[in-house]
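Summary for the steering committee. The consortium agreed at its last meeting that each partner would contribute one worked example illustrating the joint modelling workflow. Our contribution is presented below. We chose a case with several input lines so that the handling of multiple components could be demonstrated. No manual editing was applied between input and output; the record is shown as generated.
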Amino acid sequence: MGSEIAHAIAAGVLGGGVYALMAAGLTLIFGVLDIINVAQGILVVLGAYLSYVLSVHLHLDLLVGLLITVPAMFVIGVAIYWLFIRPLRGAERTSMTLLACFAVALIIEGILYRAFGSNYVSLSAWYTTSSVHMFGFYLADIYLIGFGLAVVAIAALYFILYRTTFGRAVRATMQNQAAARLIGIDVNRVAAITFGIATAVTAIGGMVFGAISGGFTPNSGYDLISRLLAIVILAGMGSIGGALVAAVFMTTAEALVDIWQPSWSVAVFYLAMVIILTVRPAGLFGRRAVRAQ
Amino acid sequence: VTGSTGARVPEAAPSVPKAATRTGTGPIRQPSRQLLAVVGVLALVGVVALFPLVITNGTATNIGVVTLIFVAVVSAWNLFSGYSGYLSLGQAVFYGTGAYFLVVAAKDWNLTGSAVFWLIPLGGVAAAVIAVPLGLVALRVRRHTFVVITIAFFFIAQLSASNLGVTGGSSGMLVPAPGNWDPATYNNPFYYLAMIMAAATVALSWQVRRSRFGLQLRAIRDDEDRAAGLGVRAMPVKLTALVLSAFITGMAGALWVYFIGEAFPQFVFDPLFDLAVVLMAFFGGLGTVAGPVLGALILAPAQLYLNLVQSNGYSSEILFGALFLVVILFLPRGVVPTASEYVIKGRARWQRGRGDAA
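What follows is the complete predicted structure of the assembly.
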């Protein structure tokens, strides 16, 4: 029992890091563009399938494959922004962009179904089957590798945001888009690159997700996006650090409930979110609620 | 009129006789337009009512039933989301609640045949009851957060349906079909019930739009803080609209599940359903009375037909998403507002032409 709980906590914290990375993309897009990218879930699945193709057909190691999938997902993200999000303007932009993202998600899901069918596939490499033994339980190496990747990627995000000129432009756009435009920031370019970066992290998230989830189908996008949204809302939208805390909290709670009630463990996510929102509508680390218009 | 305003608006000068001609034709024009609208609505109702008597093909009436259910649901969605601006992507929660209520109640109370139809309004009540706590939580937040919460509620509902014992879990449940009906006219009672439901919902939507209540909803949509400042009690107004919308949607879900005769969590709580409802409303025109009707009448049969002819549902998913993008990018305000804009522009041009001639 004790080792089960220890394992649940370890897997929850380490898995939470990966969810935090995917949620960071979501929250970054929200902060800069004021958009909820509901396609983030299916983009993670797309990233997982790209890794799958590279490892099965080209026999590339999953980690080496990231060198291809990360830039590929970046390009896909920029394309989605440029084609479908950028043209949307006007009073209804908020809801329109959300629906556009939903439509993109549907199209990607349909394409994935056509290409790969609805059978479960999973990613495997030597480090998905080997495990380390610590504190009386076994933990697959991929958890440690995934957590390490997530930490590196989130650190890179922080570095870009707080130590580069581009990051300063991103933060300026987050604070006030009109003012950012006035001081000469190309807001469209900032937005496109942000969307690209946020999509690029799904390549990493997707690879790790595909390796630790035990199997995925194109349908997994729904499960993923609902978890990510719960994390981002719980954290307060626009807060990357908050997303990290919320993700680790949620996945650990889920893993603990999973010991006793496997079929209800996902509900922990939504229940925590609903309870927090009734107490704090802006989320745990959210900024002041934006005025509705 | 000072010279400066005259110079700034050159067209202002001939506007005086034009205004006179317009008021002159006004009393004749106004009733004729109303008459036209009444005739149009009656013709539409007539065509819809005669449809199953003329076309007795089972597949066609099947599509007809589901289309009319969509007319009711999309109008009900618009009644809340279109008028108030609170975009809900969780309408399937109410649809599924009504559906499961009918299935479970029919089984537990041993109802069969026509008696099951009496459960339909109760299904609506069940959905309305669910809507109250959901609304009290979700309507505290706005915009994105509201949308996301409705999505979360949807997933909670789907999860509960797959895991609770009462719904039969993921293995689903069957509704005993009304046994001794003639297969040739089997669809007709469902069809006419759906038609009544759709007509009543559209009438309600029309009434709400021209009522004080509807005005309050639209004030909330335009600027909630300002509306509250002007004395609109936002929460009760929003909640009433949501509960009303949930009631209709629940009834529609109950009717639908009795029609198809089986309930599985992934079909009763279907994310595509949520999206389809929103797309139909957007396609027709958000916040109008006719828009959702038009959107449902065009898109629901198209979607159902695509599902029928395509061997796998995935191509229709891609098409559906692409159509959605086209609507959003090129007809962002929907067919009805865009079309009426063209009509108004055309009429203005025609009147200007006539004014110049006179």
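The interface with chain A takes residues 87, 89, 137, 140-145, 147-149, 151-153, 155-156, 159-160, 162-163, 223-225, 271-272, 275, 278-279, 282, 286, 312, 314-315, 317-318, 320-322, 324-325, 328-329, 332-333 of chain B (CB under 8 Å). DSSP finds 15 helices and two strands in chain B.
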